[in-house]
Amino acid sequence: MTRHNITEKNQGKSQGFTLVALALGILVCGAGWAQQSDWQVPRTPEGQPDLQGVWANNSSTPLERPEFFGDRATLTAEEFQELRRQAEEIRASGGDALFGDGFLNAVISGEVQSYDPATGNYDSGWMVDRNLENRTSLIIDPPNGRIPPMTEEGRARAQQRMSARLSPTDSYLGRPLQERCITWGMPYIMAGYNSYYQIVQGKDSVAIIQEMIHDVRIVPLGEKPPLDERVKLWHGDSRGWWEGDTLVVQTKNFSDKSLFRGAGENRLFTERYTRVAEDVLQYEFTVEDPSTWERPWTAVINYTASEDPIFEYACHEGNYALMGILSGARAAERAGQIPTE
Question: Tell me: the pLDDT tens digits for 275-295?
């Protein structure tokens, strides 16, 4: 295994990387993919842009911008330098793994929030190197870098879902889809943990393989008729086409059980894959759902090329958590106790 650890518990950061300090300068890094002037997008034998390979999403940039940055999309040079220093400090401190936005949050606050405080977190051995970028959010639109407010309908629906939610210990149906090895949904955007994709191209289709649960999306290219709108799928129904050197994929027909940030079956998802350097694939997505948000929103993630293969994701094998959780709940009931999640 060649993926390396990177981030860790910040126990030694007592100096407190406060929000004020952050405002003075903190994060980021340079993805550093300076493109050579003579570089050209590689082509497949069919003449299409070649996007094939294994790509990693290990960005340290959070999806949403911390509010104190306002509309500022990038860090200053001083902030970037400070970010790198803090990243090295975190790396050297050892401790818990920091997935997703946890890395940046630890740098900003000086405190590590455990991913799983109930049973204990993964340790740093599970972590890969994070890509430090001079950006304050993955979201590029709206200008404040944050997910737009929910509509009144969206808030009411979220409340209804919460009210109808089954007890997490009454049945396996009360457990999340990820825990039941069904899907992590589309897109899976948490960085630093099984956050790798493999793209395989054919003339008339593209396969996008996700390391997490090994979900595979087969995207037909061209003018294939869409599915009947009554057919709903975990990852929706995708159609793709080329716009210059960019692969555009549009997806709808999502199952209402496969949620993304509160949006369900009504969302329209548009992705744009552009190879901007030999080792960088720019992934842009826009989500539209007028029944959930006041406006569409767009984010950009810079995937980096990986020489490593997609690793096995053994979910069902050896997964005794589901049986253990429910068995523990029944044992608690027999003992006259109230089961906890």
Answer: 999 999 999 999 999 999 999
